[in-house]
Amino acid sequence: MDQGLPWGQSPIDLPASAVRETGGLGWAFGVVVISSLILPLVNAHALANWADQLPVEPRTAPIVAAADAWQARARDLGLTVVVDRTATMAAAARKTRWPAAAHDRINATDQR
Questions:
Q1: Which residues are CB-contacts of 54 (< 8 A; sequence separation ≥ 6)?
Q2: How many alpha carbons lie under 13 Å from residue 6 in its C-beta half-sphere?
């Protein structure tokens, strides 16, 4: 029973010149380059945290200052909204008093 098209044929009729096949290595290289360019833009908090962990030396001071300035600028541009909201929700979850598990209540009553 034939369930599909013969190998190499497409249900979409495209002229041969419109089909562009690229190698996997070029695609992977492009993904890495684009990700490397975008990551500092949307990950300013991690960049600032990394810079704050550098040893305190005269040569690292400009790196720390630049990272902190970029984090402030990214916050002004709204690029840190997701991170800020997540941090707020995590802090609220840490402050929440969760009910004790049933086995904790049983153990507490057994010890009285």
A1: 60, 63, 64
A2: 0
- Per-residue CA distances from 75 to 61, 78, 106 (Å): 21, 5, 48
SS3 label, residue 89 = helix
* Element at 95 (helix H, strand E): helix 81-95
- Give the total residue count for the chain: 112
Tell me the three state secondary structure of residue 56. coil
* 83 vs 105 pLDDT, higher one: 83
Listed by start position, the domains of the chain span 44-97
pLDDT in tens, 19-65: 566 678 888 999 999 999 998 888 999 999 999 999 999 999 999 99
Task: Return the exposure string of 8-41: e unless at least 16 CB atoms fall within 10 Å of the residue's CB, then b.
Answer: eeeeeeeeeeeeeeeeeeeeeeeeeeeeeeeeee
Tokens 């962990």 map to which residue? 53
Higher-scoring residue by pLDDT: 73, 5: 73
